[in-house]
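Notebook entry, structure prediction.
Reason for the run: the old model in the group folder had no record of what sequence produced it. Starting over properly, with the input documented here first.
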Amino acid sequence: MKIYFAPLEGITGYIFRNIYDEIYGHIDKYFAPFISPSEKCPITPREKKDLIPENNTGINLVPQILTCRSEHFIEASEELKAMGYKEVNLNLGCPSGTVCSKKKGAGFLTDTKALQQFLEDIYSYSESENIKISVKTRLGYYDPEEFHDLVKIFNDYPISELIVHPRIRGDFYKGEPRKEYYAYALEHVKCPLVYNGNVFTTDGYDELKRYYGNDLDPVMLGRGLISDPSLAEKLCGSVSETDMNKLLRLHDAIYHEYQKIMSPDINVLYKMKELWTYWRGMFEDHDRDIKQLLKTKKYAEYEKIVYGDLFTS
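New structure, fully documented this time:
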């Protein structure tokens, strides 16, 4: 079974990826949070720091590009190729209002004519430069029926993998994924497929597998892996329950690495609190402590709750 780690902006940067991979592993591909190339700058210094090989040693990392301009995509891909990358990913799934208003992410799905020309350009480039381009997409923008036409478009190009999140833009991340449309993809898409969406537990995965059979491989996990970092281990049969000692190691390593590169306290705590919004589900008996933790502004306040209440009982 192959497991891919979906990108989560602000969370799954190189610090998180390296620490997670060392403690948990079982990930076949990590996808980096998207870069958004512009006319003046294909990749910013901050984005480059997240992607440089020395910050991702031993990790199979795929950079993700968010744009609706083929020339910008190609310029960014050229820089990434020079860094040693042999695969890049096109983001056609981001539902953010700011992103979609610029016809990027899921917003690009509304203009299929422009999308076709874009794909024509980038796949001509990929074939001439021998670089793989995978695509992460939603079913459509307004209506899941849009997916039928999108499949016809995607089938015209040598997409290395099509990662399908079976929701439309308006669904954001709410409600159940529209399973029947991924079943349609399994029947009609020519390139290799990857399922993405709402896998939070082994029971949830097993339910999907009963629906799709053995075709649910590879699978991309995002919020599920943040909410329970041991989920990949569980799906691979390595463990049966969450190891809180490993979670503590993950927490401590991330916390201390952020302290090395960020200040003052509040900036580091902002990053840690974002993780705790996912981890709180593993601490159901400590809801009051989590609420207090999310209000902390100093390391001492934060550490008193983490080490005095959450990881000691």
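Summary: The chain has a mean pLDDT of 96.
The old model has been moved to the deprecated folder.
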